[in-house]
Amino acid sequence: MVVRLLIGVILGVAILVGIAVGLARGELEEVENWLYLIDVNVSENTIQEIERSSHDLVVLDFIPSEANNTAYPMAEVVRRLQRAAHPKIVLAYIDIGQAESFRTYWQNDWEVGDPEWIVAEDPDGWVENYPVAYWYDEWHEIWLGRDGTLSEIVETGFDGVYLDWVEAYSDEHVVAIAEEQGLDPEQEMVWWVEDIGEYTRSLNPDFLVVAQNAAELVEREDYREAIDAIAQEQVWFDGAADGDPPGDCPLPRTEDQVETRAYEQRLSRACLRLYREFPDSTLHVSSEWYLGYLSRLKFL
Protein backbone atom coordinates (compact mmCIF):
# COMPACT_ATOMS: atom_id res chain seq x y z
CA MET A 1 0.00 0.00 0.00
CA VAL A 2 1.47 3.36 -1.08
CA VAL A 3 0.62 6.29 1.17
CA ARG A 4 1.05 10.01 0.61
CA LEU A 5 0.86 12.74 3.24
CA LEU A 6 -0.81 15.79 1.70
CA ILE A 7 -1.06 19.15 3.45
CA GLY A 8 -4.33 20.88 2.57
CA VAL A 9 -5.64 24.39 2.93
CA ILE A 10 -8.73 24.19 5.13
CA LEU A 11 -8.76 27.32 7.23
CA GLY A 12 -5.15 26.41 7.95
CA VAL A 13 -6.03 23.74 10.51
CA ALA A 14 -6.55 20.41 8.76
CA ILE A 15 -4.40 17.70 7.23
CA LEU A 16 -5.44 15.46 4.37
CA VAL A 17 -3.78 12.07 4.25
CA GLY A 18 -4.31 10.27 0.95
CA ILE A 19 -4.08 6.51 0.62
CA ALA A 20 -3.05 6.03 -3.00
CA VAL A 21 -4.26 2.63 -4.14
CA GLY A 22 -5.27 2.09 -7.76
CA LEU A 23 -6.14 4.65 -10.42
CA ALA A 24 -8.91 6.54 -8.61
CA ARG A 25 -7.01 6.83 -5.35
CA GLY A 26 -3.87 7.87 -7.19
CA GLU A 27 -5.58 11.14 -8.14
CA LEU A 28 -5.07 12.30 -4.57
CA GLU A 29 -1.30 12.13 -4.91
CA GLU A 30 -1.36 15.37 -6.89
CA VAL A 31 -3.42 17.34 -4.37
CA GLU A 32 -1.38 20.06 -2.69
CA ASN A 33 -3.88 22.86 -2.15
CA TRP A 34 -7.52 22.29 -1.32
CA LEU A 35 -10.63 24.08 -0.13
CA TYR A 36 -13.28 23.03 2.38
CA LEU A 37 -16.38 25.23 2.05
CA ILE A 38 -19.48 24.05 3.90
CA ASP A 39 -22.23 26.51 3.05
CA VAL A 40 -25.70 25.95 1.60
CA ASN A 41 -25.86 29.53 0.27
CA VAL A 42 -22.87 29.75 -2.08
CA SER A 43 -23.10 32.79 -4.35
CA GLU A 44 -22.16 32.97 -8.02
CA ASN A 45 -19.29 35.29 -7.12
CA THR A 46 -17.91 32.66 -4.75
CA ILE A 47 -18.18 29.95 -7.39
CA GLN A 48 -16.32 32.15 -9.87
CA GLU A 49 -13.60 32.78 -7.31
CA ILE A 50 -13.20 29.05 -6.66
CA GLU A 51 -13.25 28.40 -10.41
CA ARG A 52 -10.31 30.79 -10.89
CA SER A 53 -8.40 29.45 -7.90
CA SER A 54 -5.40 27.12 -7.82
CA HIS A 55 -7.15 24.60 -5.57
CA ASP A 56 -6.62 21.01 -6.68
CA LEU A 57 -9.54 19.67 -4.65
CA VAL A 58 -12.74 21.32 -3.42
CA VAL A 59 -15.22 20.06 -0.82
CA LEU A 60 -18.71 21.54 -1.17
CA ASP A 61 -21.98 20.81 0.55
CA PHE A 62 -24.47 18.86 -1.56
CA ILE A 63 -26.61 21.98 -1.62
CA PRO A 64 -29.79 20.51 -3.22
CA SER A 65 -30.20 18.35 -0.11
CA GLU A 66 -30.91 21.53 1.87
CA ALA A 67 -34.68 21.93 2.09
CA ASN A 68 -34.66 25.55 0.91
CA ASN A 69 -32.19 25.02 -1.95
CA THR A 70 -33.47 22.03 -3.90
CA ALA A 71 -33.27 23.93 -7.22
CA TYR A 72 -29.61 24.88 -6.81
CA PRO A 73 -27.71 24.10 -10.07
CA MET A 74 -25.27 21.70 -8.41
CA ALA A 75 -24.40 19.67 -11.51
CA GLU A 76 -23.50 22.80 -13.43
CA VAL A 77 -21.28 24.06 -10.60
CA VAL A 78 -19.50 20.70 -10.31
CA ARG A 79 -18.84 20.61 -14.07
CA ARG A 80 -17.49 24.17 -14.06
CA LEU A 81 -15.02 23.38 -11.31
CA GLN A 82 -13.94 20.13 -12.92
CA ARG A 83 -13.39 21.90 -16.26
CA ALA A 84 -11.76 25.04 -14.87
CA ALA A 85 -8.43 26.29 -16.19
CA HIS A 86 -6.99 24.61 -13.09
CA PRO A 87 -9.27 21.52 -12.87
CA LYS A 88 -10.51 20.48 -9.44
CA ILE A 89 -11.51 17.20 -7.86
CA VAL A 90 -14.93 17.98 -6.39
CA LEU A 91 -16.21 16.13 -3.32
CA ALA A 92 -19.67 16.32 -1.75
CA TYR A 93 -19.78 16.92 1.98
CA ILE A 94 -22.21 14.64 3.82
CA ASP A 95 -22.81 13.99 7.51
CA ILE A 96 -23.09 10.23 7.98
CA GLY A 97 -23.24 10.21 11.79
CA GLN A 98 -25.78 12.97 12.41
CA ALA A 99 -29.21 13.86 11.12
CA GLU A 100 -29.57 17.51 10.09
CA SER A 101 -32.99 19.07 10.45
CA PHE A 102 -32.47 21.42 7.47
CA ARG A 103 -32.12 18.53 4.99
CA THR A 104 -34.82 17.29 2.63
CA TYR A 105 -34.97 13.91 4.37
CA TRP A 106 -35.95 15.45 7.72
CA GLN A 107 -39.60 15.01 8.75
CA ASN A 108 -41.36 17.71 10.72
CA ASP A 109 -42.42 15.44 13.57
CA TRP A 110 -38.91 14.08 14.21
CA GLU A 111 -37.16 14.85 17.49
CA VAL A 112 -34.60 13.27 19.79
CA GLY A 113 -35.87 9.77 20.54
CA ASP A 114 -38.49 9.73 17.79
CA PRO A 115 -37.47 7.95 15.67
CA GLU A 116 -35.40 6.08 18.22
CA TRP A 117 -32.23 6.23 16.12
CA ILE A 118 -32.02 10.01 16.65
CA VAL A 119 -30.25 9.77 19.98
CA ALA A 120 -29.21 13.27 21.13
CA GLU A 121 -28.41 16.87 20.28
CA ASP A 122 -24.96 17.76 18.99
CA PRO A 123 -22.48 17.66 21.92
CA ASP A 124 -20.53 20.69 20.65
CA GLY A 125 -23.51 23.00 20.31
CA TRP A 126 -24.13 22.80 16.55
CA VAL A 127 -27.84 23.54 16.22
CA GLU A 128 -30.03 21.37 13.96
CA ASN A 129 -27.52 18.49 14.20
CA TYR A 130 -28.42 15.23 15.96
CA PRO A 131 -26.17 12.17 16.46
CA VAL A 132 -27.79 9.01 15.16
CA ALA A 133 -27.57 5.25 15.63
CA TYR A 134 -26.19 4.92 12.10
CA TRP A 135 -26.67 1.16 11.82
CA TYR A 136 -30.48 1.45 11.61
CA ASP A 137 -32.05 0.45 8.29
CA GLU A 138 -34.07 3.68 8.16
CA TRP A 139 -30.87 5.76 8.23
CA HIS A 140 -29.26 3.59 5.56
CA GLU A 141 -32.30 3.92 3.33
CA ILE A 142 -31.93 7.71 3.31
CA TRP A 143 -28.48 7.32 1.78
CA LEU A 144 -28.44 3.97 0.00
CA GLY A 145 -32.03 3.74 -1.18
CA ARG A 146 -32.99 3.64 -4.83
CA ASP A 147 -33.63 7.40 -4.85
CA GLY A 148 -31.31 8.09 -1.94
CA THR A 149 -28.90 10.94 -1.42
CA LEU A 150 -25.82 9.02 -2.52
CA SER A 151 -27.28 8.10 -5.90
CA GLU A 152 -28.16 11.78 -6.40
CA ILE A 153 -24.60 12.79 -5.56
CA VAL A 154 -23.11 10.33 -8.04
CA GLU A 155 -25.58 11.36 -10.74
CA THR A 156 -24.74 15.03 -10.13
CA GLY A 157 -21.18 14.30 -11.20
CA PHE A 158 -19.19 14.62 -7.99
CA ASP A 159 -15.84 12.83 -7.93
CA GLY A 160 -16.47 11.52 -4.44
CA VAL A 161 -17.86 12.12 -0.98
CA TYR A 162 -16.39 13.69 2.13
CA LEU A 163 -17.76 11.94 5.23
CA ASP A 164 -18.33 13.95 8.39
CA TRP A 165 -18.97 12.60 11.86
CA VAL A 166 -17.24 9.29 11.37
CA GLU A 167 -16.36 9.76 15.04
CA ALA A 168 -20.03 9.24 15.94
CA TYR A 169 -19.07 5.81 17.30
CA SER A 170 -17.44 7.56 20.29
CA ASP A 171 -20.42 9.78 21.16
CA GLU A 172 -21.69 8.80 24.60
CA HIS A 173 -25.34 8.58 23.51
CA VAL A 174 -24.47 6.47 20.47
CA VAL A 175 -22.34 4.21 22.67
CA ALA A 176 -25.20 3.82 25.15
CA ILE A 177 -27.77 2.66 22.58
CA ALA A 178 -25.20 0.36 20.96
CA GLU A 179 -24.47 -1.27 24.32
CA GLU A 180 -28.19 -1.71 24.96
CA GLN A 181 -28.44 -3.57 21.66
CA GLY A 182 -25.26 -5.60 22.18
CA LEU A 183 -23.42 -3.88 19.32
CA ASP A 184 -19.90 -2.56 18.87
CA PRO A 185 -20.32 1.06 17.67
CA GLU A 186 -16.82 1.22 16.18
CA GLN A 187 -17.37 -1.91 14.11
CA GLU A 188 -20.78 -0.64 13.02
CA MET A 189 -19.17 2.60 11.79
CA VAL A 190 -16.53 0.74 9.80
CA TRP A 191 -19.25 -1.38 8.20
CA TRP A 192 -21.25 1.78 7.47
CA VAL A 193 -18.30 3.42 5.70
CA GLU A 194 -17.71 0.18 3.79
CA ASP A 195 -21.37 0.16 2.68
CA ILE A 196 -21.07 3.74 1.43
CA GLY A 197 -17.93 2.92 -0.53
CA GLU A 198 -19.33 -0.27 -2.04
CA TYR A 199 -22.58 1.41 -3.08
CA THR A 200 -21.06 4.52 -4.65
CA ARG A 201 -18.35 2.56 -6.45
CA SER A 202 -21.00 0.24 -7.86
CA LEU A 203 -22.32 3.35 -9.63
CA ASN A 204 -18.91 4.84 -10.45
CA PRO A 205 -15.84 2.61 -9.96
CA ASP A 206 -13.57 5.66 -9.67
CA PHE A 207 -15.63 7.31 -6.93
CA LEU A 208 -13.57 8.64 -4.01
CA VAL A 209 -14.41 8.24 -0.31
CA VAL A 210 -12.68 10.67 2.05
CA ALA A 211 -13.34 10.42 5.78
CA GLN A 212 -13.08 13.31 8.21
CA ASN A 213 -11.65 12.87 11.73
CA ALA A 214 -11.55 9.62 13.77
CA ALA A 215 -7.86 9.34 12.91
CA GLU A 216 -7.45 6.42 15.31
CA LEU A 217 -9.36 4.17 12.92
CA VAL A 218 -6.34 4.10 10.59
CA GLU A 219 -5.03 1.23 12.70
CA ARG A 220 -7.77 -0.97 11.22
CA GLU A 221 -6.93 -2.53 7.87
CA ASP A 222 -10.61 -2.94 6.95
CA TYR A 223 -11.13 0.78 7.46
CA ARG A 224 -8.06 1.77 5.45
CA GLU A 225 -9.28 -0.42 2.59
CA ALA A 226 -12.70 1.28 2.65
CA ILE A 227 -11.48 4.85 2.20
CA ASP A 228 -9.21 6.86 -0.07
CA ALA A 229 -8.09 9.56 2.35
CA ILE A 230 -8.51 10.96 5.85
CA ALA A 231 -8.94 14.65 6.66
CA GLN A 232 -8.35 15.58 10.28
CA GLU A 233 -9.79 18.81 11.64
CA GLN A 234 -8.54 20.87 14.58
CA VAL A 235 -5.03 19.45 14.55
CA TRP A 236 -3.58 22.70 15.91
CA PHE A 237 -6.49 25.03 16.71
CA ASP A 238 -10.21 24.86 17.55
CA GLY A 239 -13.13 27.20 18.20
CA ALA A 240 -16.78 27.27 19.16
CA ALA A 241 -19.72 26.29 16.95
CA ASP A 242 -21.13 29.81 17.23
CA GLY A 243 -17.82 31.46 16.32
CA ASP A 244 -17.10 32.70 19.85
CA PRO A 245 -14.20 32.07 20.13
CA PRO A 246 -13.57 32.03 16.36
CA GLY A 247 -11.19 29.11 15.94
CA ASP A 248 -8.00 30.53 17.44
CA CYS A 249 -7.78 28.33 20.54
CA PRO A 250 -4.51 26.36 20.46
CA LEU A 251 -4.57 22.67 21.28
CA PRO A 252 -1.97 21.28 23.70
CA ARG A 253 1.12 20.64 21.57
CA THR A 254 2.17 17.42 23.32
CA GLU A 255 0.53 14.72 25.39
CA ASP A 256 2.20 15.88 28.61
CA GLN A 257 0.52 19.29 28.25
CA VAL A 258 -3.05 17.92 28.13
CA GLU A 259 -5.30 19.20 30.94
CA THR A 260 -2.46 20.88 32.81
CA ARG A 261 -2.50 24.18 34.67
CA ALA A 262 0.23 25.50 32.37
CA TYR A 263 -1.92 24.81 29.31
CA GLU A 264 -4.99 26.46 30.83
CA GLN A 265 -2.95 29.60 31.55
CA ARG A 266 -2.12 29.88 27.83
CA LEU A 267 -5.79 30.11 26.85
CA SER A 268 -7.71 33.32 26.37
CA ARG A 269 -10.77 33.87 28.53
CA ALA A 270 -13.08 32.76 25.69
CA CYS A 271 -10.98 29.68 24.94
CA LEU A 272 -10.84 28.75 28.62
CA ARG A 273 -14.64 28.95 28.77
CA LEU A 274 -14.85 26.60 25.76
CA TYR A 275 -12.31 24.26 27.36
CA ARG A 276 -14.31 24.01 30.58
CA GLU A 277 -17.75 23.85 28.98
CA PHE A 278 -16.87 20.95 26.66
CA PRO A 279 -14.64 18.46 28.52
CA ASP A 280 -14.69 16.10 25.52
CA SER A 281 -13.65 18.73 22.99
CA THR A 282 -10.41 18.73 21.01
CA LEU A 283 -8.90 21.20 23.50
CA HIS A 284 -8.49 18.14 25.72
CA VAL A 285 -6.48 16.32 23.02
CA SER A 286 -2.96 17.11 21.84
CA SER A 287 -1.70 17.91 18.35
CA GLU A 288 0.89 15.21 18.98
CA TRP A 289 -1.88 12.61 19.39
CA TYR A 290 -3.51 13.47 16.05
CA LEU A 291 -0.23 13.68 14.15
CA GLY A 292 0.88 10.38 15.61
CA TYR A 293 -2.04 8.50 14.06
CA LEU A 294 -1.82 10.32 10.74
CA SER A 295 1.91 9.79 10.37
CA ARG A 296 1.48 6.07 11.01
CA LEU A 297 -0.17 5.78 7.63
CA LYS A 298 3.29 6.00 6.13
CA PHE A 299 4.12 2.65 7.64
CA LEU A 300 0.84 0.72 7.45
User: Based on DSSP secondary structure assignment, what is the total number of beta strands?
Assistant: 12
SS-derived structural category: alpha/beta
Relative strand content: 15-25%
Q: CATH class, please?
A: Alpha Beta
CATH architecture: Alpha-Beta Barrel
pLDDT under 50 segments (min length 5)?
1-13, 19-24
The ordered H/E elements are: EEHEHEHEEEHHEHHEHEEEHHH
Can you describe this structure?
- By secondary structure, the protein is α/β, with parallel strands linked by helices.
- It has a single domain (2-233), classed as TIM Barrel (Alpha-Beta Barrel), CATH 3.20.20.
- The protein has helices at 22-26, 44-52, 74-82, 137-144, 149-156, 172-180, 185-203, 221-226, 261-266, 269-277, 287-296, and strands spanning 2-7, 15-20, 34-37, 57-61, 89-95, 98-100, 129-131, 160-164, 208-212, 229-232, 237-238, 249-250.
- The strands form 3 sheets. An 8-stranded mixed sheet has the order 1-2-10-9-8-5-4-3. A two-stranded antiparallel sheet has the order 6-7.
- The longest helix is centred in the middle third of the chain and has 19 residues, at 185-203.
